[in-house]
Amino acid sequence: MKLGFIIPNHPNEKRVALLPWHINNFENEIFIEKGFGHHLCISDKEYEDKGCTILNREDIFKECDGIFSLKVIKPSDYPYIRENQIIVGWTHPYGSGNTFMEEVAVPKNLMVVDLDNIHPEIFYENREIPIPWIPKNFVYKNSYIAGYSSTMHALMSFGMIPSFKHKVAVLGSGNTSQGAFNAISKFSCDIRMFYRKTLNEFLDQMSDFDIIINGIELPPHSEPLLKISDYAKLKQNTLIIDAAACPGRTFEGFHHTSYNHPIYHKESVNFYAINNSPSIYYREASQEISAAFSKYVYSKNLKDFIELCK
């Protein structure tokens, strides 16, 4: 079968999800959009030398059974999508990809392979089907980079070099929180980590902290960790870095920020939540994504995903 790779058209997205040196014994024919490796100075010829076919974007959709897009496919591509195609990537069916699911995936009977790091699943005909050969945390380093890059970028955007006089809370103990801890620990500040089991202690002490870094992603419809009424209890001008990019759910009333405007001020709080922060360190992130996805996703025949849905 034919698997095509398109360049994600998400703002400031520079990660390259397939690198030529990871292409080895793939069971599908691979088609690459012209200029796919541009951000890493990888030429189209390097992909051709590995047996790939280079096409323009529209022809990728026309030619291929499956389409890989690292980020959620945007409305500008909706007209190109054919009925019954397979869409592979970080599709976020219950989050940022909900509109895509409702407007395109369901009406066109698409098979959507969502490569969530914890629960990779196929969304097809109102079913959610686990993918047994993809292990939990198969691309954990991208989440680690998210924590690291969010912390560094937020501090730079805020114009702040933390020191011994600053108290920092890191929420969570998973991959994102570990990356955030690595970043903030490079400064000589007073750091404390709070796990899910000790979040009540954080809530009792939240007024002590100058910087709060979140690595916890809450599921939809969860009670927020901090409600609007809690913000008055924080220090004036507290910097909240939502490295999990879960605003609104973890922090009530806040929304995603952007590379052009990474921080905004509200309720006496400075808030950062960029949802593709690993792209800041896009060279490192590309290497990790390409290696993990090649091993567990790209090397598999698309027919294997179809078989799971029968």
Automatic annotation (TrEMBL):
GO terms for molecular function: alanine dehydrogenase activity. One of its GO terms (biological process) is alanine catabolic process. Residues 4-105 form the Alanine dehydrogenase/pyridine nucleotide transhydrogenase N-terminal domain. One of its GO terms (cellular component) is plasma membrane. InterPro entries: AlaDH/PNT_N (IPR007886), AlaDH/PNT_NAD(H)-bd (IPR007698), NAD(P)-bd_dom_sf (IPR036291). Keywords: Oxidoreductase. The lineage of its organism: Bacteria, Bacillati, Bacillota, Clostridia, Eubacteriales. Signal peptide: none annotated. Residues 151-273 form the Alanine dehydrogenase/pyridine nucleotide transhydrogenase NAD(H)-binding domain. The keyword Oxidoreductase applies. This is N(5)-(Carboxyethyl)ornithine synthase. Transmembrane segments: none annotated. SMART domains: AlaDh_PNT_C, AlaDh_PNT_N.
